[in-house]
Amino acid sequence: MIDFKNTEGIYFVGIGGIGMSALALYFRKGGYAVAGFDRSESRITLSLADSGCAITYEDNTAFLPDLFFNPVHKDKVIVVYTPAIPSENRILSHFRNNGYRLYKRAEILGGISSHTDTLAVAGTHGKTTVSTMIAHLLKQSETDCSAFLGGISKNYNSNLLTGESRYTVMEADEFDRSFHQLKPLMAVVTSLDADHLDIYGDLATMVEAYNIFCSKIKPGGTLVVNSKIKSQIIVPADVTFFTYGLDPDADYNAFNIIHTKDYYSFSIKTPDKVIEDLHFTFPGIINIENFTAAVAIALMCGVKEQEIRKAAILFQGVKRRFDIRINLPGLAYVDDYAHHPEEIRACIKSMKEYFKGRKITGIFQPHLFSRTRDHADGFASILDELDEVIILPVYPAREKPIEGVSSEMIFNRMKSVNKRLLRKEDIPGKLDISKLDVLLTIGAGDIDSLVTPIEEKLGKERAR
Questions:
Q1: Cβ proximity of 320 and 150 under 8 Å
Q2: Collapsing DSSP states into helix, strand and coil, what is residue 30?
Q3: Does this chain's domain 116-314 share its CATH topology with 323-463?
Q4: Rounded Cα gap, residues 460 and 455, in angstroms
Q5: Fold (topology level) of 323-463
Q6: DSSP tag of 399
Q7: What is the 3-state secondary structure (H, E, C) of 239-252?
Q8: What letter does residue 421 receive in the DSSP assignment?
Q9: Is the pLDDT of residue 282 over 80?
């Protein structure tokens, strides 16, 4: 059991990560001294600094506050790190060599999970959107919740929500089997596409890990699974099981979907009733499927139908998840976090539906050498569905280069003739606005640093 009572400070090695930053803000709001290291400044780290966190961008122990530098205080300090931090990191080595209490982010989240009624959302894609939708439905109702989200909610401009409710929404991350630390009361599994094969080796092992996660649900709890993957899930004997999706046979089923210019209208069939004529402005039929999962959990938590109806039309989405930055006649720009072939497939399908008949240009930054190696054919196949593609170099994240693996693996497999290999620093300079209709940036690396420059360039040139 992690002892927070006698702790004065929490140090985060990798504080700028989306999951780490939510925890840092949580402990800062709890009155703890919070400090951390990250490799580069970002909007997230600047926001944390504004909240009172002490942040350094140099891997040098000389910049540590005294509470975290002097080993005499080590019993008052907890150090949190992620597997993405290399073992040779000097700050992490300082804590390790001097006997500090070190925990992975997942262990801290698991400790919080054990003291609350956790609503956990897992899946190789869709989990950030679904968890944010659940949190929004609960926050807009009398039920309320707290939430640790894997993205920045546009409704609340934060990845951390705090409340007085007994419910806490958590994104259940499968990387490094982190989600095995959670003990949810209710859980959702959205998808099971092969990913993180650098950790799992093969799809079967990954699916086994998801079933271990499902076995962690508290006795008497609930499991809600996308109907497409129900055959792969082993339902624990003491857990209530439901399916959701667009399948008419799903327990929670979205139907009568109509897309008008500004919104979708649809109905949801539940085991008990039908919620008719919901209005939803967030783009993409895939997100109606995601919203159906969120509605299932919300209803089980006591959220009323009328509360769901009002919250649905107010949902603004998540930054970097089908994030519409510009939407003008003849010029649109969307940014998306998709980094797996199936995520990109869902994104492009939504783009073609929402911007029907328009030319779509995509800028893709592959994320991880191992993922590029494992899914080069899949990336090439789905990117060929765009009208024009620009591919950037692989973003390595936690990995070192793998011999023979690069963006060219994807580029050379593509059949499209409208494709280019460019460096990140070439963007947005080499974008010709006169040839753009709809622009899409895709990736989980540092491609997000291009969003504002692209947005500014498009805005200025359009204003001429």
A1: no
A2: coil
A3: no
A4: 9
A5: Protein-Tyrosine Phosphatase; Chain A (3.90.190)
A6: P
A7: CEEEEEECCCCCCE
A8: E
A9: yes
Q: How large is the average pLDDT for residues 190-196?
A: 84
Indicate the helix (H) or strand (E) that contains 341.
helix 341-354
Tell me which residue of 298, 356, 360, 355 sits closest to 141, measured CA to CA: 298
Q: What span, in angstroms and rounded, lies between the C-alpha atoms of 447 and 432?
A: 19
Predicted confidence at residue 463, as pLDDT, reads: 56
Confidence of residue 392 (pLDDT cuts 50, 70, 90): very high
What is the SS3 assignment for 458?
Answer: helix
Residue 247, pLDDT above cutoff 90: yes
Task: Assess whether pLDDT exceeds 80 at residue 194.
Answer: no
Burial of 204 (0-12, 13-18, 19+ CB in 10 A): exposed
Class of domain 9-103: alpha beta
Confidence bin at 129 (pLDDT 50/70/90): very high
What residues does each domain of the chain span? 9-103, 116-314, 323-463
* Consecutive H or E run containing 127: helix 127-139
DSSP-based three-state secondary structure for 261: coil
pLDDT at 360 over 70: yes
**Three-state secondary structure along 168-230?**
EEEECCCHHHHHHHCCCCEEEECCCCCCCHHHHCCHHHHHHHHHHHHHCCCCCCEEEEEHHHH
CA-only gyration radius of the chain, Å = 22
- DSSP letter for 6, please: T
Output the pLDDT for position 350: 86
Per CATH, the architecture of 116-314 is what?
3-Layer(aba) Sandwich (3.40)
| CB-based contacts of 7, cutoff 8 Å, min separation 6 | 32, 76, 77, 78
Residues across the chain: 464
Tokens (6 digits) for 9: 């400070």
